[in-house]
Specification:
455 residues, alpha/beta, Rossmann fold, 3 domains, seven-stranded mixed β-sheet, five-stranded mixed β-sheet, globular, binds NADPH dihydro-nicotinamide-adenine-dinucleotide phosphate, binds (2Z)-2-iminopentanedioic acid
Length: 455
């Protein structure tokens, strides 16, 4: 069979598969997008591996084990009640307890959390640790809320959530809008209701069972992954101009590690726009960003007050600024096809996705055609959940590892993820990291599902 005919055959299979997914999950475009990206790698692979095809393994993996959805009622500081939606999508526990973060953001829908849960299954498999995949959260908006309001919301949310999770069942963590403050309130409420002190959440404070390096792990891991990719071309981060988006947890530690490895970060962003600091962001400037986002909790335009040489671009994203390496670390679909074309045109050679699904399907195709080094989120940002997995290990052993020990394990895990991507994504002189990550992540879960028989 000619290549063209075989490609057409796969296209038909992929389209039929996607029709089924869309029919089952109407009105969930982010979920459709995440499944489509994976289907393009997995369906051709499954076609040549009949054991997976016969048992309908990929079809099973696109349906969550269960979806939990509930009402959260909480009172603001004026005593006015508010009603939000709470969710947990327990996607797949074939290779370990459900694991994945909570997102608190007004844009959260069931479809958002299904996309994130589906990605999490493959990502967690890639970490090489025994972790299933889940995601949860709420359409609650923490912005502009007092600490007491956030605490009351977290307590109300956990009052229902606690019965669905557990240290050996489902272990949530943070994501957008859920950081150390929120995890503290959530863990406190779980402990109070369940009357147990276990590793039921990760991302905890080090005083109460958290792991050193967990706050840093996603950002550091994304830069370690970039380092591995550049090493395949005998290159390094040293001296490279880096474009970062986001200004939250992932972005801040991405910037920190880029600086440490001799790169030059020049941008960051939030929902109000982006900052271009052509002089380069230094450690001192990074501490101002942390203060703006973690303490003052305001928009990044505030940075200009301290560094008037920098420029603020309201409502825009940083992808038209020339740079060698890009680290999208804010949210999904923040790199469009046009953004991708600008990046490539301006000489960008590498994209490491710190965020989940920041690049549209069209953007991915642009990067693939240009044959630049492109790491999908499920590989590049897996360091966060990997160290969450090691937080669970430390909690079970009731001991804590040092910073250096955990950082060494993070680097080792990112290198192992890279090796798996190369193993399944290598094609004459080019590494397709999307294909490599999807197939490597799939196989482990698929083999476990086969072992369990039909259920
Ligand atoms: P944070 O809440 O700490 O930061 C999120 C950042 O993204 C903020 O700068 C926020 O701006 C911006 N942002 C969020 N939503 C939007 C939006 N709709 N449009 C524009 N900007 C937006 O979250 P994290 O840093 O933890 O998460 C960032 C990304 O990394 C997400 O995709 C997350 O899923 C992913 N991720 C996180 C991991 C972790 O360990 N935390 C692990 C793996 C992936 P503003 O402050 O204005 O809201
Ligand atoms: O998307 C992710 O991997 C996370 N938000 C982290 C999940 C976790 O359980 O640490």
């Amino acid at each position: 069979m000619s290549t063209t005919t075989s490609e057409t055959r796969f296209t038909t299979h992929i389209n039929d598969f996607m029709d089924m997914v869309k029919h089952r999950s109407p009105g969930e475009p982010e979920f459709h997008q995440a499944v489509q990206e994976v289907a393009e790698s997995i369906i051709p692979f499954v076609e040549s591996n009949p054991k997976y095809k016969a048992a309908k393994i990929f079809e099973r993996m696109t349906v969550p084990d269960r979806v939990i959805m509930f009402r959260v009622v909480w009172e603001d500081d004026q005593g006015i009640p508010h009603v939000n939606l709470g969710y947990r999508v327990q996607f797949n526990n074939a290779i370990g307890p459900y694991k994945g973060g909570f997102r608190f953001h007004p844009s959260v829908t069931l479809g958002t959390l299904k996309f994130l849960g589906f990605e999490q299954v493959l990502k967690n498999s890639l970490t090489t640790l025994p972790l299933g995949g889940a995601k949860g959260g709420s359409d609650f908006d923490p912005k502009g809320r007092s600490d007491n309001e956030v605490m009351r919301f977290c307590q109300a949310f956990m009052t229902e959530m606690y019965r669905h999770i557990g240290a050996d069942v489902d272990v949530p963590a943070g994501d957008i809008g859920v950081g150390a403050r929120e995890i503290g309130y959530l863990f406190g409420q779980y402990k109070r209701i369940a009357n147990e002190f276990t590793g039921v959440l990760t991302g905890k404070g080090v005083q109460y069972g958290g792991s050193l390096i967990r706050p840093e792990a996603t950002g550091y891991g994304s830069v370690y992954f970039a380092k591995e990719m550049l090493a395949t071309q005998n290159d390094s981060i040293q001296g490279k101009t880096c474009l970062v988006s986001g200004a939250g947890n992932v972005a801040q530690y991405t910037i920190e590690k880029i600086i440490e490895l001799g790169g030059r970060p020049v941008t960051f962003s939030d929902s109000t726009g982006f900052i271009h600091d052509a002089d380069g962001i230094t450690r001192e400037k990074l501490s101002v960003i942390s203060d703006i986002k973690n303490v003052k909790r305001v928009g990044i335009a505030d940075y200009i007050k301290s560094f008037p040489n920098a420029s603020f671009y309201p409502g825009e994203r940083p992808w038209r600024i020339p740079g060698d390496l890009a680290f999208p670390s804010a949210t999904q679909n923040e790199i469009s096809g046009d953004d991708a074309r600008h990046l490539v045109m301006n000489g960008c050679r590498l994209v490491s996705e710190g965020a989940n699904m920041p690049t549209t399907l069209e953007g991915i195709e642009v990067f693939r055609q240009a044959k630049i080094l492109f790491a999908p989120g499920k590989a590049a940002n897996a360091g966060g959940v990997a160290i969450s997995g090691l937080e669970m290990t430390q909690n079970s052993m009731r001991l804590s590892w040092t910073r250096d020990e955990v950082d060494a394990k993070l680097q080792e895990i990112m290198a192992r993820i890279h090796t798996q991507c190369v193993e399944y994504g290598q094609e004459d002189g080019f590494i397709d990291y999307v294909k490599g990550a999807n197939i490597a992540g799939f196989i482990k879960v698929a083999d476990a599902l086969l072992a369990y028989g039909t259920l």
